[in-house]
């Protein structure tokens, strides 16, 4: 007899087991969630929840991929921000950086 949930735990890939295709798929998913959450109502909660979930799974690189994407968006928005998304995007990036720092502090 085995503990409930053990099969699921054994099936979850370790962070270093993400294939390049899976990592690219997750990066695209994070970008899509950012686009949806930074719509007219702002908030960026979908992308932030995505990062929290990825960190719980131990997928730090997925969170870093989204942060790199956000940094590129911030750079672009500094040059042209007709919809006023710069401050929302900067705030989201800062929250993700704090989450990553907290993960690093855990060891």
Uncertain segments: 1-13
* Rg calculated over all Cα atoms: 16 Å
By DSSP, the count of extended strands is: 0
Give the overall average pLDDT: 83
Structural class: mainly alpha
Level of helix content? over 70%
Helix/strand order, N-terminal first: HHHHH
| Major sheet summary line | none
Instruction: Bin the strand percentage.
Output: under 5%
Overall number of structural domains: 1
Q: What's the tally of helices?
A: 5
Ends apart, CA distance between termini? 33 Å
Globally, the shape reads: globular
Structural commentary:
There is one protein chain. The chain is mostly helical. It has one domain. It is built from five helices and no strands. Helix 2 packs antiparallel against helix 3 (45-56), helix 2 packs across helix 4 and helix 4 runs antiparallel to helix 5. The N and C termini lie far apart (33 Å).
Notable traits:
107 residues, mainly alpha, globular, disordered N terminus
What's the arrangement of secondary structure elements?
Elements: H1 6-11, H2 20-37, H3 45-56, H4 60-79, H5 86-106
Gist?
With 107 residues, the protein is mostly helical. The protein has five helices and no strands. The protein has one domain.
């Amino acid at each position: 007899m085995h503990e409930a949930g053990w099969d699921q735990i054994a099936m979850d890939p370790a962070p270093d087991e993400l294939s390049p295709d899976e990592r690219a798929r997750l990066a695209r998913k994070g970008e899509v969630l950012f686009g949806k959450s930074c719509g007219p109502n702002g908030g960026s909660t979908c992308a932030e929840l995505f990062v929290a979930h990825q960190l719980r799974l131990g997928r730090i690189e997925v969170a870093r991929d989204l942060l790199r994407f956000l940094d590129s968006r911030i750079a672009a928005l500094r040059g042209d921000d007709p919809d006023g998304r710069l401050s929302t995007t900067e705030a989201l990036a800062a929250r993700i950086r704090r989450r990553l720092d907290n993960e690093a502090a855990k060891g």
